[in-house]
Amino acid sequence: MEYAEGTKTPPITISTPISISPHSSPSSPSQSPPNPPLSPPPPPSPVILSPCAACKILRRRCVDKCVLAPYFPPTEPLKFTIAHRVFGASNIIKFLQDIPENQRADAVSSMVYEANARIRDPVYGCVGAICQLQKQVNELQAQLAKAQAEMVNMQCQQANLVALICMEMSQPQRPIIQEPNSDNLGYFAEDGNLGTTAWEPLWT
Prior knowledge:
This is Lateral organ boundaries, LOB. Among the domains are: 53-120, no CATH class; 126-167. Helices cover 51% and strands 0% of the residues. The protein has six helices and no strands. α2 (77-86) packs across α4 (104-120). The protein starts with 52 loop residues before the first helix and ends in a 6-residue tail after the last helix.
């Protein structure tokens, strides 16, 4: 068949049949699309280890197993400065190596305290502080003993007073008899004399 020039041929569409099994259910529009694959976690940021305060002050490299690192962190440089000024770094390291690890923290605290006391009092150091505290303890003990003695004395006085009051209350009350006063009797006697003299007859 021939077509005339200028005419357009209509497009031909071929529909393919879609087979639907009886067990398959049509997809609902409310179903969410499949999740995208998870992206791998970012790599951890590198940890920058700063040298401890002891190695920073001594200007040396801080190794992994530094003896001073757990007790002199980089945020507390003054702590090592005070201890190093009195004892020295070599003595501190030697002392920490000679004692068990569970006692090193207490030893460092003791050294720092003693170094502070030695700087405040170069002659006596922490011994001077101990003597001063012992003196205060003795004074407080003397004041406490004095207060206790006064309290016992007051308790004894209170007990005696209570016993005296009970004794007075237990005794029977006697009637009080008022005796005439001798001065009043003399006055009445004088009045009697005056009365007799006044009434004596004048013609006798």
